[in-house]
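Posting here for the record, re: adenosine-5'-triphosphate.
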Amino acid sequence: MNLVDKRGLGIGIGLAALACVALPAVLSPYWIYLAISAVVSAVIMQSFGVIVGRVGIMSLCQMSFAAIGAWVVLRLNVAEAPGGFFVWLLLGGLAAVPVGVAIGLPALRIRGVNLAVVTFGFAVSADIVWNANPFPGAKDLKMLDRPEPFVTDGAYFVFVVIVFTVLAVILGVIGKTRLGLSWYELRHSERSAASHGISVARSKLAAFAISAFIAGIGGGLLAGQLSLVVPSNFAMGQSLALFAVAIMIGPHHPEGAVMGGIFGAIMPTIMDKVSLPQDFGGVLFGVGALLALRSGLSQTDLTRMRKRERSARKLMKETEEAGTEKGAEAAPVLTPPRDPGDRKPCLSVTGLTVRFGEVVALDAVDLTVPEGAVVGLIGPNGAGKSTFISAVTGFVTGYEGKVELAGQALDKIDPSTRAKRGLRRTFQTTAIAPELTQYEYLAIGAGRRLPQAEADELLEFFGCPPGEVPVSIVDAGTRRLLDVAAAIAARPKVALLDEPAAGQSAAESLRLGSRLTEVPGRFGVSILLVEHDMELVQATCEQVTVLDFGHVIASGPTGEVLADPAVRAAYLGAADVPAS
Ligand SMILES: Nc1ncnc2c1ncn2[C@@H]1O[C@H](COP(=O)(O)OP(=O)(O)OP(=O)(O)O)[C@@H](O)[C@H]1O
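Prediction output follows.
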């Protein structure tokens, strides 16, 4: 996967260069000054883009981070510290980082509105501090001089555009890395991210640190524009208004940050011109934000997704037509499951007991997945199958019993570390970020640089559309397959699949079965399959364990177990157990 979208980069830099040349030449001094404000707001918007747009965290204190940046720059100016404005600007950004991380710490435990309240609380406290203590230089009017050669408004506009562009390029590159992609996954499902070996804590704290740094830079730039700042430049209300703009527009894309910056900077002027109170602008932003929250996606997300979907649909049609020309896919020939024989155990679970209050979801369950095997775990609804997967992969803590992977104990280890050690899982309900392409999702799952040829092979093997196709237009059944492909892409020792055939037709389910039997030999991954589709289980699994009310009622070679009268009785009315 390319870290740089060369076309987008070219267009972005071209537009930035055009703005630098044309705007100072054609705009009046008043509008140049407003244009500087718009770009400085756009930089602060980029900080919202990281934390709000990408990770989906409601942070209401970005202006407080900006104030830290401005304070440091002005303090260093008063002290006439060495290095000059450029170094001070960088130090201002860096000074905001530890504060950002400190504010991010509660985000590891709380989320949503509660976290918004924490960030709002910090913004209020910061407001009180700034109001009680004037910014450096304000008392004795020690102004901050802009650096050469960016002294005039026109030249300073060029400088802020350069800073914005550099940040946009860096954020674009980060967005394509595992860290950046993990932010999208966190936004939709933290447990899905953890199941891919992503450290949720590290990923969130990195987002807070980077967004605080950018906001700090934005604050320093504002100090450079104004020469002196006052607390109202960073008022809590500003954070709220910009937050609403961020939700509405989506500043995690450069065009969104620019639009947000323009809105933020010129709205007061527009309100003035149409003789409406300034607060009315905030109301408009709030309404826009509510509409965006209802759809779950910002305006730039929607525009970009629609564009991507159009070309992806064309690609899917071409691929389908090429497939039809080659002829219909032959019905799978299922090779009978092999006998596990005396292969070494890969995953070994002993005495696994899970209680949810009075409910004993699992009671001393033993299960072994031998190396290179496909093993089934079946049982009626509520038997404890998903709980088994969740406990083994570390999502349910406080269980009794022992979980060993290739002879190593995994108990007391968190889900993302278990995933990194070679234990991957899928969920009954998929929660794949629709903004991602299938390639990007596979890259997250793989947890390593995934060569395109390998990604293509996986997608073709599991019958998914081409890798450029965004998840937003992939149907629910295929998303499950994509989830399985992402788990296998990591080449774990064992993949625990929770009902991957749900939502598939009988023929598709059979095809999936034939693929799963090939997985151990082809990808070196053993499988524990949780399924209600008994035909699939019979055709795929060499061994099967049956749970009922958390107890193992049968375990052994699939044919024998499915013929067991106790198993048939447990399933009576719950699913069809084919006669063996
Ligand atoms: N978080 C939880 N809190 C309380 N009870 C739970 C929780 N998760 C599961 N249970 C209970 O544990 C039991 C086992 O549930 P589990 O979801 O593991 O069953 P299952 O075999 O996967 O069912 P299905 O086939 O419907 O997915 C059920 O009685 C369920 O209500």
